[in-house]
Write a structure and sequence with these properties.
By secondary structure, this protein is mainly beta. The chain contains 1 helix and 7 strands. The protein has one helix spanning about 40-50, and strands at about 20-25, 30-40, 55, 60-75, 75-85, 100, 110. The strands form 2 sheets. It has a 5-stranded antiparallel sheet with strand order 3-1-2-5-4. It is elongated, with a radius of gyration of 24 Å.
């Protein structure tokens, strides 16, 4: 006879108050902006700013906190965006130039 097979998928339930992290890179990829917000608003935030992806800036190599700003997003309200930069490591043997101006700014010394 015939056998009926019913397939089931997992139901993903976001708990009220769950926090989701969203990030976006700047156009020149020099910085990364991250917002941590209630998961129920993540879809609205992504619709408002198409570059947003799930995840954090440090997970993508941007670990130096540079500052914060507040942005108003329709439906969501005000969200805080933390800006991160990349950690720059100087390689052994790299050369750095240092300079100093005289008190009257008439001369400059460099090494």
């Amino acid at each position: 006879g015939d056998i009926t097979i019913t397939t089931f998928g997992k139901n993903v339930t976001l708990l009220a108050g769950s926090t989701c992290s969203l990030y976006a890179l700047s156009d020149d990829a020099a910085t990364c902006g991250q917002s941590d917000l209630d998961c129920k608003y993540a879809t609205f935030a992504k619709a408002f700013q198409k570059q947003l992806k799930d995840g954090t800036c440090p997970d993508h190599g941007y670990s130096v906190k540079e500052g914060t700003e507040t942005k108003h997003v329709p439906v969501v309200g005000d969200i805080t965006i933390t800006t991160f930069g990349k950690n720059v490591t100087l390689l052994a043997g790299s050369t750095c130039s240092l300079y100093a101006l005289s008190d009257d700014a008439a001369t400059c010394g460099q090494s």
